[in-house]
Each structure stands twice: as structure tokens, then as C-alpha cells.
Amino acid sequence: xxxxxxxxxxxxxxxxxxxxxxxxxxxxxxxxxxxxxxxxxxxxxxxxxxxxxxxxxxxxxxxxxxxxxxxxxxxxxxxxxxxxxxxxxxxxxxxxxxxxxxxxxxxxxxxxxxxxxxxxxxxxxxxxxxxxxxxxxxxxxxxxxxxxxxxxxxxxxxxxxxxxxxxxxxxxxxxxxxxxxxxxxxxxxxxxxxxxxxxxxxxxxxxxxxxxxxxxxxxxxxxxxxxxxxxxxxxxxxxxxxxxxxxxxxxxxxxxxxxxxxxxxxxxxxxxxxxxxxxxxxxxxxxxxxxxxxxxxxxxxxxxxxxxxxxxxxxxxxxxxxxxxxxxxxxxxxxxxxxxxxxxxxxxxxxxxxxxxxxxxxxxxxxxxxxxxxxxxxxxxxxxxxxxxxxxxxxxxxxxxxxxxxxxxxxxxxxxxxxxxxxxxxxxxxxxxxxxxxxxxxxxxxxxxxxxxxxxxxxxxxxxxxxxx
Length: 469
Ligand code: ARG
Known about the structure:
This protein is mainly α and about 475 residues long. The protein has three domains: about 15-115, Fumarase C, Chain B, domain 1; about 120-365, Fumarase C, Chain A, domain 2 (Up-down Bundle), CATH 1.20.200; about 370-465, Fumarase/aspartase (C-terminal domain) (Ribonucleotide Reductase Protein R1, domain 1). It contains 20 helices and six strands. The chain has a two-stranded antiparallel ribbon. Helix 11 (about 245-270) packs antiparallel against helix 12 (about 295-320). The protein is elongated, with a radius of gyration of 31 Å. The chain starts with about 25 loop residues before the first helix and ends with a helix. About 40% of the residues are buried. Arginine (ARG) binds next to helix 7.
């Protein structure tokens, strides 16, 4: 990007007329956004094409001027795509850079493009166009991660792991069931993204600086051309609303939070203390000093990067809270948090979508852990209740049984029948079927339960839904 002293001259900018001295170089750097908002360039061109077409349609722009503008913007698009565009800091932002280049290329017509428009409604339009496309990519990326989870779940319907509460072994669950919990979370994330998209997909253009314009514009035409579902119906709100960005980042923060929970579990499961899974080597690193280490860097980084997205949400909320109507330059600060949120979420979803199929499960280790913590104690209590004992009494009897098993250093299922009968005379030999891990799982056989039959059905439902997208 060039910023030589001549380029600091205001006459290069779109607003030189009223000023008598150049902007201080530092102020220029402080206020310019072109270093990052050039990312909006293609959306900016798309918006300008629609605006120009509308101006021509309502008779504000001649068809010759429109043709020049279309030709010039096509050339600029090519320059940008080939990386040949000369972005100038002195031209402040993406909008003035493109407009200036257009005028260089096509002359007069370029100077007419900004008729009935302001950078305030222009930038709001650009960000919405850009974000709409990114939301669609994130929706697809969420789908890919869901698919990866569903296929791992399908492979592990019958793999038993300890389910935890308070990180204490609670009840045995199917590892497939555990993975499908994340598929549910990501589905809600997708729904939230699609819902936010509806409010992103409204057209601010036409609000001009803040009050609308004196030209006989046709906003519906522009909306239609750009694929917006509706118009922003109040010009002051149109140029100053960034709710759509806040909402999007909030939805993204939840995506990251969900991925971060899985990341945390992978880190725990990979630790030799658990030993439940191995991650593919390409997703782990070694230590420069401790040769024995395999570090789960990708999950750890995902967990860490969640912090920046949550931070971006805070940044945007604080950005908005003190702003009087209508547009203020503060709004320029919406872009970096938005861009970084999109990049972080897309990279993270990609990393997980690629990593999940490679997770290797040590099902023997999982099973051992599930057997360790008296995880079928609730099954014993339920058994006693079915034999007529009130649940509280059953709970008490099982607590004693657990204590005895702990003293003997064995599992509940290994206690002699006579000993169980001492605690609750209702017990018969049928009890042992209930105390196995497989028996415990199979017994939870209702929608949402962890029985392999139900988990298989969950897998089938998800495959069906994901295939239909
Ligand atoms: N670069 C500005 C932004 O991102 C564009 C709008 C500038 N408008 C203005 N009145 N200075 O918000």
C-alpha cells in the first residue's frame, strides 16, 4: 500500500474542498481503514453496480454513464482479483479507493456514481453483503463438522464410556451418544446463524448519510438485485444499526464455546490419566524438551481462540453502547472483530472436521473407566424400585452396597448375591444382568436415551437430515 507524502494530499480524497491543510500522516494512519476493509472490495463493487443500475433506471444517470461505470468496475474487480490494485492509505478506505480508481479509468461517469449515496449506507450495505456470504460458509462448515461427528458416532454406538457429572463417573453411556450431543449443539448454532442471517439480509442503501436522499431512488430494485429480503425502513437506523454484527458474533461465540467444550474433553481424554483417545499425529505436536510428549495443540488452540471471539462480542457491544444516532466513525471498528470472528470460526470448524474422523478410540480403556466408578449404581437402585422399594430406601441400600464393593475392591456386579440380599432382601439372581454396562445402556431405551438401539436411530435421523441439505 502506498502512503508517500504526495498521496497525503486531501485532493486525492473524496472530500478535499473544505480543508486548508493536509491531514497529519499519523492521523491518516489512525483513521484509515483500507488496510483491513479492502476485504469488502467485491461486495463494494456489487453494491455500486446495483446502485448505478438503479440510478440509470430512475433517470438520474445516463445509460452511457452506467455503461462506463460497469466497464470500469469490471476492470477494477479484475485488478483486485489479480492482486494488482494499488490500495492507497491516503484514500482512507475501500470505498474511496475504488471510487477514485473508477474515475481514473472512466472519467466523469465515475464521479457520478456517488449520487444519492453516502459511505454511511454504502459501508453498511457492504458489510451485510459480505457477512451474508460468510454466514452461508459457516453454515456449511457446521454441517461438515456435524457429519464428521455423526460418522464417528455411527462407528461407536456400542462403545461404552463413563458418562460424567461433576467430572465424576456417573452412568455408562455410549460414546456415540456422547458425540451426538455435540451434533445437537452445532445444529442449534446453525439455526442461530440462519436466524441472524434474516436480519443481516436487509438493505440499508438509500439511507444516504442519515436522512435519505432527494433523488427519486428505487430501493426495492436495489434490494432485489442484491438479493436482500427487505429494506431497512428507517434511514437513521439503517446507517447506524450494527445489531446484525453483534448477533452474528454472539452466535459465533456460541459455536466456539461448543467446540471448546469438545476441545477440553479431547484434551482430557488424550491425557494418559484417561487414555480414551488418540488424535492423528498431524493434529498433535511433540515437546522440544520432553521426548515422550504428544500434545493436543489443535484442541487447545481452539479452546484458546474461543477467548478472542468472546472478546470480539464484548468489543462490539461496547462499541455500540454509547453511540448517539446516527452514523459515527466508531462503526469503523466493527470490521476487525467481525473479520477475525469469521476467520477463527471457519478455521476452527475446518480443523475439527478434519480431525474428528481420525480420532482413534481405546474402547477397552473407556470400558475399564466405566467399570471403575460403580457407574451402574443407579441401575441397582432402579431395580430395587421396580421390586417395590421406595426410591429413597433403594438409594440408601445401594449406597451401602457401593461401600461394601469399595471395601472389597470390586465392582457392584462382583458382590455375592447373599451380600446384596442382606442389604435388600428383594434382590434375586436377575440383578446381575442389570449391573453390567451393556445392561445399563440397553435399559435406557427411549428417545434421547443412550441405549444402542436409540443411538442407532439418532445416527439414522442425522444422516437423513444432513443428506437433505
Ligand atoms: N470506513 C468507514 C467505516 O468503515 C466508511 C464510512 C465512513 N463514513 C464517514 N462519514 N466518514 O465506517
